[in-house]
Amino acid sequence: MKTIEAYQMKKIYAIAHALGITEAGNKEDELHLLVSGLTGKASIRELSYREAATVIHMAAGGKDRLNAMYMVEGYGEQN
Question: 5-40 pLDDT, tens per residue?
């Protein structure tokens, strides 16, 4: 499985910073909650290339998309 690329990691953090969902040194900030909810992984470094692309796509939709996602019943539950 292809792992996350450096440019993807930078893009994830850049989008998260622009949205105000990241806190330096906090592994339980909104960004990490988003990553965990979408992929089940606690660390961005653990993401596959495809999972990173999904996180980028969802985060790039902005706060409105993220807020709508959080309102969906069962979001983030690992089935």
Answer: 999 999 999 999 998 888 988 888 899 998 998 899
Exposure b/e, 32-61, CB count within 10 A at least 16 = b: bbbbbbbbeeeebeebeeebbeebbebbee
Measured distance CA(10)–CA(76) in Å, rounded: 23
Q: Which two tokens stand for residue 12?
A: 């994830």
48, β-bridge pairs: 3
User: In this prediction, what percent of the chain has a pLDDT beyond 70?
Assistant: 77
Phi, psi of 46 (to 5 degrees): -80, -10
Q: How far apart are CA 47 and CA 5, in angstroms?
A: 9
Q: What distance lies between CA 69 and its chain's CA centroid?
A: 12
Residue 48, classed as helix, strand or coil, is strand
